[in-house]
Amino acid sequence: MLGLMQDRPLLISQLITHAAINHSDREIVTVTVAEGVHRYDYAACERRSRQLAKALIGRGIRLGDRVATLAWNGYRHLEVWFGAAGMGAVAHTVNPRLFDDQITYIINHAEDRLVFADLTFVPLLERLADKLSSVEAFVILCDDAHLPETGLRGAQSYEAFLDEADDDFDWPEFDENTAAGLCYTSGTTGNPKGVLYSNRSSVLHAYGTALVDVLGMGERDTIMPVVPMFHANAWGIPHAAPLVGSKLVLPGADLDGPSLQSLIEREGVTLSAAVPTVWLGLLSYLEQAGKRVDSLKRVVIGGSAAPRSMIERFETKYDVRVKHAWGMTEMNPLGTVNTPKAKHSELPLEQRIDIKCKQGRPVFGVEMKITDDDGNELARDGKAFGHLKVRGPWVVKNYFKHEDEPLLDEGGWFDTGDVATIDPDGYMQITDRSKDVIKSGGEWISSIDLENAAMGHPKVAEAAVIGVPHPKWDERPLLIVVPVKGEAVSKAELLDYLKGQVAKWWLPDDVVFVDQLPHTATGKLMKTALREAYKDYKLPTARDPVS
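Below the sequence we write its predicted structure tokens.
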């Protein structure tokens, strides 16, 4: 027997329509690339999104066609998201921080017909345009007054493109499994692979994102996603904000500490989300300039593990609650968020911070387990660690145009490539990427745990740990450190600091000091580049084979 409830499809257009009706005057504030601060409301956003949808149809864009964006977080980018998905096309967010060859491959593989780009990325596209065979025209996210002289084919301003249609347009209904968004991940081997989100997966993800024990979003919040829309959908915030009616602050291209502090204070931001490198920049500025962010109540930290020292600084010095999170492009992207349970409120501060250092509990809809190399499920005791696998309604099934290549195991589980523990309360903690874990004498050492421990030293600005070949132990850890500017720190000082924080046999065999570390396009440490750079490095303990 089936239930007797209405069978209405879950569509992304419903999110912005809901906001336009029920939160019509709630602000969306954008720091544009060249036109200053722009303000309007959800009603105007929905109206212009419908206008864009009609303009896309006028250009021959049809159900399933892909349109690309190379853009910062801004109101026009938001309109492309809702307008394209709302009329049945696919909004393909391209990460402009990738290498030229990767961007060319991604746009050609997706067969994008139009490219919407911020002014910042016009020179990049001019370099690549002749290689982008499927692109019919380039639309620059500005008005006519700011349109640069360019040889890009069909180039026009976004406002001129929008004026090709009026807003007399009704959102169509179609199957909720219709594709809505496309994002390529470079975390796989070979060429980047596309993750094709559906309307259904995106709406369900928005519901999950807003839950109290997830990001806890509400109408009274002013939310600033610093994480770009081209980085795993800005972690779902641009979809969840209209669902609950939050004021939305879109920071554009200026993501440095002074710019973010000023914007937070001016707009009264209560919740923000970014990768650790962004928060390091903000915290450094606050401490150097003696500034505050008093409106800010919660920060979401993801993309890579948040150092314990960062959590402590936010919580104890600035009274900002940290929500540690984990996810993947393949997961829309949220998988876990760290919100304390009721029983944790009475714990001493140190123990509460211990819990906050974990990546958190699964969002409802995400099933999670850890297994050994043979696929056997391991205990949820917080000690056993193994391959992290997930499944759920917003987890990838196949990569785009790789539908004939099996991605899931027989139980429908997706192997994330992470190594993790899960404790009895459901808190998951990443101990490493499977390719980054250090295998020493048949045992595993977590490079992430070592990095986070080293980051607690007041003279360490950033740290990375990689495995270096060793004649006796197979691999041993090498600690690579960027000192705080103007500070001097020694190898002996760091190793002495680490004693007692990690097992003795985990202690790095050597320490190297550098001016900077390489990062991926999404701000993560580029371990592949470090392993290549130090592949012939001789550890002091490796010079004597019997050491």
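The two ends are 70 Å apart (CA to CA).
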